[in-house]
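In response to the reviewer comment on reproducibility (Comment 2.3), we provide here a single inverse folding case reported in full, input and output, so that an independent group could reproduce the run without further information from us. The structure tokens appear first.
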């Protein structure tokens, strides 16, 4: 097995970092967007849909970061 580019441990860390960074960025982007639009008119259905989407994005980010931490045995 000399033809492997990465060892299994390095590959595990690589995938964890890629997934964790993507989930973290997703969390912060949607959090910032939700804060930025908090004073918008909530009677507008488009604004409500955006807020719902931002909350779902925040949940996805939290699940992604938590999953990476749990996969590595930190949590």
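Designed residues, in position order:
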């Amino acid at each position: 097995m000399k033809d492997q580019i990465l060892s299994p441990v390095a590959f595990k860390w690589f995938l964890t970092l890629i997934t964790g960074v993507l989930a973290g960025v997703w969390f912060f982007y949607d959090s910032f967007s939700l804060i930025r639009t908090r004073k918008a008119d909530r009677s507008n259905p488009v604004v409500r849909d955006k807020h719902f989407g931002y909350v779902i994005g925040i949940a996805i980010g939290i699940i992604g970061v938590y999953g990476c931490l749990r996969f590595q045995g930190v949590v």
